[in-house]
Amino acid sequence: MTVHAPERRSWPAWRARALAGLAGIAQTLAFAPRDFWWLQLLAMAALFALVERSASRRQALWLGGSFGVMSFVCGIWWLYISMHTYGGMPGVMAGAAVVLFSVYLALYPALAAFATRAVPAAGPWRAFAFAGAWTIAEWLRGTVFTGFPWLSPGYAHVDGPLAGFAPLLGVYGVTGLAALAAAWLARAVVPVVPVVPGALAARRLAAVAGVLALMGVGAGLARHAWTAPSGKPLSVRLLQGNVPQDMKFERAGIDHAMAMYRDMIVAAPADLVITPETAFPVLLQGIPPEIATPIREFADRTGSHVVLGAVGATLTDRGPTDLTNSLFGVTPRDQTLYRYDKHHLVPFGEFVPWGFRWFVDMMHIPLGDFLRGTATPSGFPVRDQRVALDICYEDLFGEEIAQALRNMPEPATVLANSTNLAWFGDTIALDQHLQIARMRTLETGRPMLRATNTGATAIIDAHGNVQGRLPAMTVGALAGNVQPYGGLTPYVRFGNVPALALALVALGLGLAMTRRSR
């Protein structure tokens, strides 16, 4: 005699898509500032259950797309502010741009759902294929067209037990494991394949045991010390000027910002003082002596190392060329400036993609084509440590930070990010970016310092814990101590290769079972 799990029935297409969209909204609520990692699992489990009951791969494609569109529209709506409030783009056009961009981003979860539905429901292979497909899809989303991995599901787990896998597999690996756990949860609640008597309870128990095992291993890995303290703590001061974006590039705003940051820098000594991205919104050579000289004298007198955000350029007879978004390091009693040029530029903000000049021209803000930094970062020397600098959007790309660390002759022991998120107002973008930075500390086993214009200025330790943070949209200096860490985590050594290899194996086995079943 054969008994069945609850009969598999396809939901009406519109209802299933609506439920997938609601699940996408729920996933967005799992990210910062709420940090409900468990909600991300439930949302993805709901999507897997819907894909399991879908009538075809085409319907599964629509389900993944509905999930993605609603997740991204609710998660990156703040892009509207940069385009409309500060860019002057008509509201309808700015809103349409956010929706269309969300539709593009949703192609990746749609493809993951499509690939999952192609695998037979019987056996464990579809759950593993779901995990592999999501891992690969998220990696592609973070790579294609320079990448936009914002809201990758793994980020929701920085405070959950799966975070223990970050030093091994990175955020994409955590995403894949979250997808696997979600699939097992869905099968524990709503299995769809016929089973013999007694097997249903056993399969449900196995699914729950698998989830608990993943969580337990992750919690255990979180206790392992992949890196170790290096030297004595550094004293730091992270400056937050709260310069309004609509004033930043006006003459009065430029003069105000330069004078304010000069005064904030020289107010108190520290081993390392960092300003936000383009805190000095002029060419480095355009910083007047009454601003630059006191900073140099302060560094020489106190032994403080100062990192300034400004625009780099080559001066020629025809004017400045080769503009770069740069950070400049002032070393005590050394006239040579350390320089870091941003290499992963923001599309539309720092370079104009081919064919989109018309779109940029609709915004009345000083956007331009910056030159990509090409030099291999060596780290800014501070006392007996080295600090790996990056700018704003660059800390979305963990594999690039890992590559920079392993390519350094002396791997940096502290990460530092200089950012200006004033373009996006006082929104969830600030908390989301902080959450992303916390994942970078878990992946690399190193602390990160964040100096931002409007927030979230913070000190994050090597274990992803926020040690101190300034309130958003305020003027202040965050002072504290940070312990450098040395050594290389497996993720720093191998990057995304292990996660992608496991994902390809999982998805490949599932698809192989599909051909075999035919």
Automatic annotation (TrEMBL):
SUPFAM superfamilies the UniProt entry points to: Carbon-nitrogen hydrolase
GO cellular component entries: plasma membrane
InterPro entries listed in its UniProt record: Apolipo_AcylTrfase, C-N_Hydrolase, C-N_Hydrolase_sf, LNT_N
EC class name: transferase
Transmembrane regions: 12-30, 36-53, 60-80, 92-115, 127-151, 171-193, 205-226, 491-512
Presence of the UniProt keyword Transmembrane helix in the record: yes
Alphabetical keyword list: Acyltransferase, Cell membrane, Membrane, Transferase, Transmembrane, Transmembrane helix
Listed EC numbers: 2.3.1.269
Topological type in the membrane: Multi-pass membrane protein
One Pfam family it belongs to: LNT_N
UniProt-annotated location(s): Cell membrane
Domain CN hydrolase: 239-484
GO biological process: lipoprotein biosynthetic process
Molecular function terms from GO: N-acyltransferase activity
HAMAP family the UniProt entry points to: Lnt
Family label: Belongs to the CN hydrolase family. Apolipoprotein N-acyltransferase subfamily.
Record-linked PANTHER family: APOLIPOPROTEIN N-ACYLTRANSFERASE
Function: Catalyzes the phospholipid dependent N-acylation of the N-terminal cysteine of apolipoprotein, the last step in lipoprotein maturation.
Database matches in NCBIfam families: lnt
Name this polypeptide is given: Apolipoprotein N-acyltransferase
Organism encoding this protein: Pandoraea faecigallinarum
